[in-house]
């Protein structure tokens, strides 16, 4: 079973958008308008820590100095109102069937998973990848394609690598005993010899490739070979020469003088999607996860230098263009981009006709959304939350040091909904990922509260020393600390105020807790909230209004709000339990001791179980009776019709049809002229583009024809065929190299035929007696030797060879 300190409220396919959303105003009150202030008390049920929000200073190396102190102002500890607002908004989004697509960054994740050939087919990727040079001119990016990369061995590079031999250097484990030493940058630093200006020829004319299109070269000292540049990539492991293990080849980017491909910005001025995905794949958004090679290559890019990259195409029958690029990376087997972004995977599941309408959380807290090019829609929130100041005399506990690693949304066993077939989390079939149309994120992420005191997650030990670079220092306030704050609300409907109270009090149910601040995965920040200035009957009345509305809104789903999967999962994670504590553990990854729970879970086909399936069922008390719910459904049906009529009143304007007809006629004229100009520009662009593509195609055709001609002009060489009981299999493998010679019929050159017949005679002499009988079988339809040899020398000569030997 996978354990994790987090879990998810399932993503809802149905979206609830309050019918009064478009009529919300700060100036025109609702009929049942609710305005006022809630006085709220927070009690920390475990030690609590909220990071100091002051502007960070830099150390001598330019790194942020992160304060371990609790957030404070003039020695008064407090929780910022924005933190409380974020906690409550996230809770309300989950419990009111909110929209998620506008709550996430629209990025495409990348994957390099050597344990899952379905998601990451290494051999196919290796076969398809092309190479080129990427540069940035300060405004946009350009890619110069170089076709398929060649390969050159470390032993060949020894001739030019200088005093230190590269083939010997990487046989020493001490030279690659850290990520930094394994990097391409470290390799360039260790071997700074000139990389460009060389000519290259095939390592072996008879076997120029390794069977999957990877051509091997050596330096051509005559200078007559193909020109190119040597490119280093990282060294993943030690080279074991005797076992023929470990990386021993680097790459050659050939100088084909192909034109640059401009990667234009999109309509919003963002870099081309391929560039955005590249930066995201190498954690440009998270400095803590960036590797040395990305920092180095990015710095070169920003200085205007060209950097070597590898890329795939959407359609290999077409030339490389900005629209035909699939993804890009810094190594041959780079992290490939998924088919769907996070936002797209949500849109594939959360379908609604009212995606532009505000959901419940939007109505309460406000929003600003882009609805078109340079067009935005916004609403100011009607709920304002003050800072929550701690009571006097509060003091921090001794400083703690723990690893608070955040989960990665690209880890599909946990973050993508899977088909789970048993109570241990075993999946049925293959994993779903962002590669699949049906792949969807698990939902709203939450950190379940613990029953026990907080646990620790110490820094990993590397070579006997704690690696505190990955740990965080913090000084929490003690369990039992009290905070007070105010929530001011203006012009809310009763259903809206009821939703806010429901989020604060878990719908009036006891024994449930929120958590806030840092170190929530370890059990810090468990809090209870209580409203101090409202009577229980008034609160229950408002909770009833909210509950009835949610039951009305979920009528199309045919489910009760209290019994819905979203509410059950949300409340399950808010109730502490011993069973829950047992599974709130980080997966381990200790590379020094070869422990990697993340990879092992994939090998075992496991996925993260819903939290409610592991703990005891929760019992949630509602506030509304069945008759009250039915009565309110009728009320909300009438109300919804009324608000819909308000939004359509503009249609009653008698001048509106005339205005619309004039606007339509003008738009038709403008659109017609625009289309003519666009078509003219497209034709000219397509003409220039086609001319350029034809030039590239002709160049590539000439290169291919020259290679084929070289293979045809050389006689076949069968010296590699080993004379033993499997000699004929060895012959077949050797003949594959020369298949261009008999692609359109038997071998034409007499010399080739004589070489092959002589080799066949030698092979016959070493065949077992049983195989010799099969060899001479005159029933040609069943003679397997006849079928294979006749492709090479024709029917009559094959029969002659088989009967004479």
UniProtKB/TrEMBL annotation:
<keyword id="KW-0175">Coiled coil</keyword>
<protein>
    <submittedName>
        <fullName>TIGR03986 family CRISPR-associated RAMP protein</fullName>
    </submittedName>
</protein>
<feature type="coiled-coil region">
    <location>
        <begin position="671"/>
        <end position="698"/>
    </location>
</feature>
<dbReference type="InterPro" id="IPR005537">
    <property type="entry name" value="RAMP_III_fam"/>
</dbReference>
<dbReference type="Pfam" id="PF03787">
    <property type="entry name" value="RAMPs"/>
</dbReference>
<dbReference type="InterPro" id="IPR052216">
    <property type="entry name" value="CRISPR_Csm3_endoribonuclease"/>
</dbReference>
<keyword id="KW-0051">Antiviral defense</keyword>
<feature type="domain" description="CRISPR type III-associated protein">
    <location>
        <begin position="42"/>
        <end position="527"/>
    </location>
</feature>
<dbReference type="InterPro" id="IPR023825">
    <property type="entry name" value="CRISPR-assoc_RAMP_BGP1436"/>
</dbReference>
């Amino acid at each position: 079973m996978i354990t994790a300190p987090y879990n998810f409220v399932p993503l809802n396919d149905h979206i609830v958008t309050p019918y009064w959303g478009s009529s919300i105003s700060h100036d025109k009150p609702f009929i049942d308008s609710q305005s006022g202030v809630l006085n709220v008390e927070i009690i920390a049920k475990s030690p609590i820590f909220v990071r100091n929000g002051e502007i960070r200073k830099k150390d001598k190396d330019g790194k942020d100095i992160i304060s371990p102190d609790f957030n404070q102002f003039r020695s008064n500890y407090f929780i910022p109102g924005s933190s409380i607002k974020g906690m409550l908004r996230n809770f309300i989004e989950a419990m009111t069937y909110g929209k998620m697509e506008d709550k996430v960054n629209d990025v495409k994740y990348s994957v390099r998973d050597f344990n899952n050939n379905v998601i990451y087919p290494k051999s196919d990727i290796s076969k398809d990848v092309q190479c080129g040079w990427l540069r940035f001119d300060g405004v946009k990016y350009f890619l110069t394609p170089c076709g398929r990369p060649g390969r050159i061995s470390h032993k060949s590079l020894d001739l030019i690598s200088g005093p230190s031999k590269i083939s010997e250097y990487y046989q020493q484990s001490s030279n690659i005993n850290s990520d930094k030493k394994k990097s391409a940058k470290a390799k360039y630093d260790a071997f700074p010899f000139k990389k460009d200006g060389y000519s290259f020829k095939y390592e072996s004319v008879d076997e120029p490739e390794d069977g999957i299109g990877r051509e091997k070269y050596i330096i051509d000292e005559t200078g007559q070979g193909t020109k190119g540049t040597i490119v280093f990539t990282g060294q993943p492991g030690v080279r074991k020469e005797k076992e023929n293990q470990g990386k021993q080849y680097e790459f050659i980017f050939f100088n084909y003088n192909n034109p640059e491909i401009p990667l234009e910005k999109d309509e919003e001025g963002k870099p081309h999607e391929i560039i955005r995905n590249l930066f995201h794949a190498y954690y440009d958004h998270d400095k803590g996860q960036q590797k040395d090679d990305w920092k180095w290559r990015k710095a070169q890019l920003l200085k205007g230098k060209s950097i070597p990259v590898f890329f795939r195409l959407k359609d290999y029958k077409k030339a490389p263009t900005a629209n035909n690029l699939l993804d890009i990376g810094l190594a041959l087997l780079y992290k490939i981009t998924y088919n769907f972004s996070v936002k797209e995977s949500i849109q594939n599941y959360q379908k609604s006709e009212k995606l532009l309408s505000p959901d419940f959380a939007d109505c309460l807290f406000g929003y600003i959304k882009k609805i078109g090019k340079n067009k935005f829609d916004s609403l100011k929130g009607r709920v304002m939350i003050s800072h929550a100041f701690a009571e006097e005399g509060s003091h921090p506990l001794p400083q703690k040091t723990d690893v608070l690693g955040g989960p990665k949304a690209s880890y599909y066993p946990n973050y993508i909904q899977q088909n789970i077939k048993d109570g241990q989390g075993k999946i049925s079939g293959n994993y779903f990922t962002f590669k699949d149309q049906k792949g969807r994120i698990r939902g709203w992420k939450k950190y379940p509260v613990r029953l026990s005191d907080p646990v620790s997650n110490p820094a990993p030990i590397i070579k006997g020393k704690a690696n505190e670079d990955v740990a965080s220092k913090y000084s929490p306030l003690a369990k039992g600390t009290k905070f007070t704050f105010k929530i001011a609300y203006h012009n809310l409907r009763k259903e809206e105020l009821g939703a806010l109270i429901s989020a604060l009090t878990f719908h009036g149910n006891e024994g449930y807790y929120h958590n806030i601040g840092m170190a929530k995965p370890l059990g810090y920040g468990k809090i209870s909230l209580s409203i101090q200035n409202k009577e229980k009957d008034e609160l229950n009345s408002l909770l009833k209004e909210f509950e009835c509305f949610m039951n009305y809104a979920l009528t199309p789903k045919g489910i009760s709000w209290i019994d819905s999967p979203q509410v059950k999962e949300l409340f399950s994670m808010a109730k502490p339990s011993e069973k829950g504590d047992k599974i709130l553990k980080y997966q381990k990854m200790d590379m020094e001791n070869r422990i990697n729970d993340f990879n092992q879970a994939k090998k075992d086909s496991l996925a993260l179980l819903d939290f409610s399936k592991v703990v005891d069922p929760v019992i949630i008390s509602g506030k509304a009776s069945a008759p009250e719910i039915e009565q309110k459904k009728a009320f909300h049906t009438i109300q919804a019709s009324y608000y819909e009529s308000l939004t359509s009143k503009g249609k009653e304007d008698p001048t509106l049809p005339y205005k619309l007809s004039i606007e339509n006629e003008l738009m038709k004229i403008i659109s017609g002229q625009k289309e003519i100009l666009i078509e003219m520009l497209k034709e000219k662009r397509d003409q220039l583009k086609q001319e350029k593509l034809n030039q590239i195609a002709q160049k590539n055709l000439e290169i291919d024809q020259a290679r084929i001609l070289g293979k045809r002009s050389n006689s076949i060489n069968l010296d590699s065929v080993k004379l033993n009981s499997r000699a004929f299999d060895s012959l077949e493998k050797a003949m594959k190299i020369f298949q261009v010679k008999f692609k359109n019929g038997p071998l034409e050159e007499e010399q080739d035929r004589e070489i092959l017949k002589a080799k066949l005679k030698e092979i016959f002499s070493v065949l077992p007696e049983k195989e010799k009988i099969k060899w001479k079988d005159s029933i040609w339809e069943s003679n397997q030797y006849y079928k294979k040899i006749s492709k090479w020398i024709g029917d009559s000569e094959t029969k002659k060879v088989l009967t004479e030997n």
